[in-house]
What does this fold into?
Amino acid sequence: MDADLEQLRDTARRFYERECVPHEKRWTEQQHADRDIWLKAGAAGLLCAGIPEQYGGGGGDFRHEAVICEEQARAMVNAFSNNVHSGIVAHYLLAYGSEAQKQRWLPRMATGELVAAIALSEPGIGSDLQRMKTHARRDGDHYVVSGSKTFITNGLHANLICLAVKTDPAAGAKGVSLLMVETEGSEGFRRGKLLEKLGQKTQDTAELFFDEVRVPTDQLLGDEEGKGFGQLMQQLPQERLIIAVGAVATMHRALDETITYVRERQVFGQPLMSMQNTRFKLAECATQATVARSFVDDCIGRLLRGELDATTAAMAKWWATDTNVRIVDECLQFFGGYGYMTEYPIARLYADVRVSKIYGGTNEVMKEIIARSVERGR
Ligand SMILES: Cc1cc2nc3c(=O)[nH]c(=O)nc-3n(C[C@H](O)[C@H](O)[C@H](O)COP(=O)(O)OP(=O)(O)OC[C@H]3O[C@@H](n4cnc5c(N)ncnc54)[C@H](O)[C@@H]3O)c2cc1C
It folds into this structure.
C-alpha cells in the first residue's frame, strides 16, 4: 500500500457505500443493477484501474485492481462484476489485442460505455473447456458463430463479450479461439432469462445464445486462430488471484460483523463474547483470515514481479475460498436464528460466498492442478 492506493481505497469505499448499498433491495428484486452504475463507476475511476492511461485506464497495476475488488467485497456489492470487466477482460485485450483493438475497446470500457463479459461455460461443459461446442466458421472476412453459453456474469448488461469458440472443432484445445463480440446490432445474438441463483441476487448472470452471428475476423484476439486455450491458461492465475483477494476481504467483513454482534448479544446474563467457545472459535477464524491475507498478499507481490505460477494461483484460489466459506459458516452460527434472516449481512454473505468454490475453475480442478505439480516433485 502507499498514499495513492489508500486514496483509491477511500474513493472505492465511499462509492460502494453511496452508489450501491442503498439500492441493494431494489437490485435484488429486479436481479440486476441499473445500467448507469457502470457509467458512475467509470466516472469515479474504478474501471480499468490497472490499464495504461493511453487506453483510457487508470495507469495503475494489479494492486489498484485488488484494492477496488477488496472494497467491493467488503461492501458486499455483487451487482456489477468489475472483476470480470476490469480484472479479466481488459487484461485479455491488453495482452493479446492488436493496437487497433485496444484503442477501439479499452477507452470505452474505462468509461463504462462498454460492459464486458467473458463467456466460456456452456450448458454441456464447464470444467472441461476443450470440449466446448460453440463454433465459428470462417466466411470471407467474417466468422459465423453458433452455440450457447451459460452462467455468464454481467450477462444482461454486457455489450462486449470475450467469447470462447472452436475455430477447429476437430482439434481439442488447439481448436479454441477467443473472439470479441460487440452485441449491439448483432443479428442472431440473444440473451436468455436472468438465472435465479442461491446468492449474489443482484448480479445479472445469464445465458447467451448465438445463432449464425457474423463477427468480423479482425475481432479475433491474437494473430492467429487456435491460440485461445493458451491465452486462457496464461490469464487464469490473475483471474484466480482476484477471486482469492475478494475472499480474504469477505472473511474480514464476516469477522467484523460477528465481533460487533457477540459483544452486544447477551446469553445467560453475559455477553456472548465472554463464552469460551466464542473466544476460541473467533480466535481460530481470525488466525485463518490473517494467514490468508499474508498468503494472498505474497501472491500479489509474485504477480507484480511476473512470478505467479499456475500452481500457486490455484492454491490461493481454493484455499482462500474454502476458508472463506468455512469462516462465514462459523460466524453465522453466533447469530443464532438472526443469522438465518436475510436482513442480517451474515446471512447474505453465507449465500453469496458459496459460489466462489465453484467459479473461476472449481476447487477440485484447482487441486488437480496442484496435484500435477506435486506429482512432478513440485
Ligand atoms: C454465479 C456464477 C457465475 C459464473 N460466471 C461465469 C462467467 O462469467 N463466465 C463463464 O464462462 N462461466 C461462468 N460461470 C461458470 C463456472 O465457471 C462453472 O460453473 C464452473 O467452471 C464449473 O463448471 P460446471 O458448472 O459445468 O461444472 P462441471 O464441470 O460439470 O463440474 C461438476 C463437478 O465435477 C467436478 N469435476 C470436474 N472436473 C473434475 C476433475 N478433473 N476432477 C475432479 N472433479 C472434477 C467439479 O469440481 C464439480 O464438483 C459461473 C458460474 C456461476 C455459478
Q: What stands out?
A: Residues 84, 117-121, 126-127, 151-153, 197, 200, 205, 355, 358-359, 361-362, 364-365, 368 surround flavin-adenine dinucleotide (CB under 6 Å).
